[in-house]
Specification:
273 residues, alpha/beta, Rossmann fold, 7-stranded parallel beta sheet, 9 helices, 45% helix, globular
Length: 273
């Protein structure tokens, strides 16, 4: 069944791949980016079912107009993919205030604004699917990526609560949690702090961690069938890992957490009063 999909950050990376795949199978796609010139080829090739819109996801009024434009143009918004966002590399001590605030605006506030604008449309329709691009780093943390971790942990908490709030409206919520992929995440789209040499050893350890060497990254094109299957699912999952690391590593990390909680459980219970 043909669907209308609204996707942010669609000019490159996952967003571009998923946009192309959706158009190829005949879905309606509303693709947003700060740079809609990147969509010229898709606009020419798909005059009937493609609508590119300029969008700064940190501008709430602009986000609301974009969702309304999508609804007016195609008659519905069946799926929203909150894909826009980026990474910041830096030890917590190294980070500059502006780097942190800008990241929070994009990864948390932008996701929030798009979600808030989509809900009334989907509620009126009686159906919809909000797909949030989280990360394995919204499940467990790595050094030098702490503030990025924080934004994805926030997306996870917000989305888990959201799913409970909107389920009676016929709206599904899914958090997509990729491991590392050969996209631009660590390239030109990333921001890095000024390096403090005291964290040199930590940085070296990070890039030796399982899943972090580039040669272990996943192939972005391989995510396309998974995303199409997710969009088509009648009962989509709340969470979906992309890649071979997520479940394996999460089991290991949660085993450690559970063991520590259990070791201190007598202290926790005594603190209840």
């Amino acid at each position: 069944m043909k669907k209308t999909v609204f996707i942010t950050g669609a000019s490159r990376g996952f967003g571009r791949l998923w946009t192309e795949a959706l158009l190829e199978r005949g879905d309606n796609v509303v693709a947003t980016s700060r740079n809609i010139g990147a969509f010229d080829d898709l606009t020419s090739a798909n005059p009937e079912n493609f609508l590119p819109l300029p969008l700064d996801i940190t501008n709430k009024a602009q986000v609301e107009r974009a969702l309304q434009t999508a609804k007016t143009h195609f008659g519905s918004v069946d799926v929203v993919i909150n894909n826009a966002g980026y990474g910041v590399f830096g030890a917590i001590e190294e980070l500059e205030e502006k780097q942190v605030r800008d990241l929070i605006d994009a990864n948390i506030m932008g996701t929030l604004f798009v979600t808030q604008a989509a809900i009334p449309i989907m509620r009126e329709q009686g159906k919809g699917h909000i797909i949030q691009l989280s990360s394995v780093l919204g499940i467990w943390a790595l050094p030098i990526l702490g503030i990025y971790n924080a934004t994805k942990f926030a997306v996870e908490g917000m989305s888990e609560a959201l799913a409970q709030e909107v389920k009676d409206f016929g709206i599904h919520v899914t958090m997509v949690e990729p491991n590392g992929y050969k996209t631009d995440f660590g390239g030109s789209s990333a921001v890095s702090s000024e390096i403090n040499p005291v964290y040199e050893k930590v940085r070296e350890t990070l890039f030796q961690t399982e899943g972090m060497p580039v040669e272990q990254y996943g192939t972005p094109e391989a995510t396309v069938p998974a995303i199409l299957k997710l969009i088509d699912a009648n009962r989509p999952p709340l969470r979906l890992f992309l890649g071979n690391l997520g479940l394996k590593k999460t089991k290991e990390e949660y085993a450690k957490k559970l063991a520590e909680w259990e070791a201190w459980d007598d202290v926790a219970i005594a603190a209840h009063g």
